[in-house]
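Before the break, one more example. Copy the sequence into your notebook; we will annotate it together after we see the structure.
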Amino acid sequence: MSGISKGLRMGGWVFAPRVLPTLAYVVLLVLLISLGLWQLDRAEQKHQALAERAAASRAPVVDLNDTPTRLASHEYRRARGSGRFDASRQFLLDNRIQDGQVGYRLLTPLRLAGQDRAVLVDRGFVPIVGNRQTLPELPPVPPDAEVAGRIRRGPSVGIRLGEPADNAGEWPRRVQYLDFDYMAEELGYPIADYLLIEGSLSNDPVVRRSGRDAWRFGPERHEGYAVQWFSLAAALTVIWLVVNTKRKHKRATGE
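Here is what the structure looks like once it is written out:
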């Protein structure tokens, strides 16, 4: 007898999926849907971050000399502070690239007046001139200064390997990643757990970026990727249904 004898019968069609292809389909379907949900989660995180930034921009300027501040509660807030720059002990954050040049971010401690701690002021990008063995000459700063900027966590690295600095005992100290505990220990006084991205010193050797977002892409791109993953899941389902659905063979009849 010819024809398909098992499976779900629908009119002249029979849906009879085989076990191994179905298992492969389920695994791929779960993977594609998971990727889509992950992209939606990333989009939501960025929407939330943008909302927090917008709210922080509308909030009053924080006076660092009067207000205890932490990254967790004050990130993205505008802030100002006055005190004395510790120009004798500055940090160069290594492996930074700007406008096609390789260099450092210059971090100068500002010892806040009326406070027992300092804040690291990110004064901008300093390119490497010549070779890495010679550190760049740093621009001077007035000992007493008032600085305005924005509270940020600063650049991050994926994996921290080895000690933070590769020229221990020397100043300026070249560091491979931000470690606020290490920096405070080397400075000999407490520092805030964030950077103040400075925007007022006129003698910084930096062509600063515009105010555009520093992400490679925003939440809309993640939402677009999510649509692509869900579309692939839908296409896979259609293919699985079509492949496993066959027309029933008519039985031969005689007179």
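The radius of gyration is 30 Å. Residues 1-5, 202-214 have pLDDT under 50 and may be disordered. Try to locate both features in your own notes.
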